[in-house]
Design brief:
Layout lengths: L1 H24 L14 H22 L9 H24 L27 H17 L2 H30 L1 H9 L9
Helix pairs in contact: 1-3, 2-4, 2-5, 3-4, 4-5, 5-6
Length: 189
């Protein structure tokens, strides 16, 4: 179990570091005069930091176990690592079109390959998978809710803002793409 705790600590550090670097490095560049982002980046950071701090704190002070079996720790950790890695792959696949703010680039195109064949926001899906993994790893029902729900609400708002911007930019092409894909979970939602 000690090895798992070390892996958890390393993965939490990697998660925070990767998100911090994304925020610092992958900014849109010039300021968007229309403010398409509508502060969603700040809302996401607040929601995610709150969810991590509150879920970990609650796990230290309360006992509402999801299960008494140790597999929950391994499942949680595997979700954390999978979420971090797949989010990185998604960000790399978008290349110059990925920014941390809601922004439409001059030569922007709608990506429809890879994960984007099934879901419109795979980067958010895998970020939420990481949050879910944290809640499961902590093995506490309250921690699970605190780890997952605030980021889910923040991402839901961001998706609304982002899809408005994409519909405004691409019109019927994006509307058609939305009809063929789900937001976050393939074939479900």
């Amino acid at each position: 179990m000690k090895t798992l705790e070390i892996l958890f600590t390393i993965s939490m550090f990697a998660w925070f570091l990767s998100e911090f670097l994304y925020k610092r490095i992958l900014k849109a560049g010039e300021k968007d005069p229309k403010n398409k982002d509508k502060s969603t980046l700040n809302i996401l950071w607040i929601a995610i930091l709150f969810s991590i701090a509150s879920s970990v704190t609650v796990s230290y002070f309360t006992q509402f176990p999801i299960t008494r079996h140790p597999w929950i720790f391994y499942l949680g950790e595997s979700f954390i690592i999978t979420g971090i890695i797949l989010r990185f792959i998604i960000i790399r696949s978008l290349g110059k079109y990925f920014t941390v703010e809601v922004t439409i680039k001059q030569d922007h195109k709608i990506k429809k390959e890879g994960f984007y064949r099934l879901i419109r926001h795979p980067s958010y899906t895998f970020s939420l998978l990481t949050s879910l993994g944290l809640g499961l790893y902590l093995n506490n029902w309250v921690s699970l809710i605190l780890a997952f729900v605030p980021p889910l609400i923040a991402f839901t708002y961001r998706i609304k803002v982002e899809e408005e911007a994409l519909t405004e930019q691409f019109g019927a092409e994006y509307v058609e793409y939305r009809k063929k894909t789900k937001k976050l979970i393939p074939f479900v939602y």
